Amino acid sequence: MKTTQTLGILAFTLAIMTTLFLVLFITDMASAGPLDTFGQVLAHVSRQSWLSLVAYANVTLLTAVATIFFAGLYVYCRADAPLASAAAVIFVPVYSVFNFFAYFSQITVIPRMLELHHMPEYQAMASFWLRQLLQTGPGSAVSIFNNFAYAILGIPSIIFGVLLYRMYPSARLGALLFALSGVASMLGIIGFVVDSALLSWGSMVGAVFFLLSLPPLGWSFWRQP
């Protein structure tokens, strides 16, 4: 199978997985109620709904597929822009490690921490780690890693988006949306740092742009001779 066809399949796969992520995330947040305090987040997570488990399992796999997709973009673009492609792809492993830990820990480490939280002798220790490891926890270490990971991925998204836009006219719509997803994700981490509620939505907007970019990119790759 040619590189372009593989990239097309990966793009369509990512589109399906990203759609599932957004649907599950929005549904889970709608059923959770306010999550402004650690107590509210802990109460929601303690229910361990199937929505959360499926959402985190899906987004963990999504991280792996996205990593392969960006590696494929490097292979695709390096002949025409070797330096820019290399500069873009070096950021991808950082995204992969941060996000894989952020998401996979929610279905492996968190359930054990919740068990320990119910044991009086371990409650203080478990509470500390839950405050740091809950991905939806306000100001948790993992939420910082998660936002930082998407900001880091914004750099190769912008670079590859610009390269595809310049080199392959048939991919311009997808390439533009792909680059905009990177810009929005970087605005998201800025909002997180400066505590701007408006800018903090950048990560979610970036996910929407990323999703919208995938069908036209996938179709362009699949059709390319």
Report on this model:
- With 225 residues, the protein is mostly helical.
- The chain is built from ten helices and no strands.
- The radius of gyration is 19 Å and the shape is elongated.
- The two termini are 12 Å apart.
- The mean pLDDT is 89.
- Please provide the count of β strands: 0
Separation of termini?
Answer: 12 Å
> In terms of per-residue confidence, which ranges show pLDDT below 50 for 5 or more consecutive residues?
none
Mean pLDDT: 89
Radius of gyration over alpha carbons? 19 Å
Most strands sheet: none
By secondary-structure content and strand pairing, the structural class works out as mainly alpha
- Element order, helices and strands? HHHHHHHHHH
The helical percent reads over 70%
**Overall shape:** elongated
Tell me the strand percentage band.
under 5%
Q: Count up the helices.
A: 10
In terms of topology, how is this protein built?
Layout: H1 3-32, H2 38-46, H3 50-77, H4 82-89, H5 92-117, H6 123-133, H7 141-167, H8 172-194, H9 197-200, H10 202-223
In short:
The chain has 225 residues and is mostly helical. Helix content is 84%, strand content 0%.
Name a few traits of the molecule:
mainly alpha, 225 residues, 10 helices, elongated, 84% helix
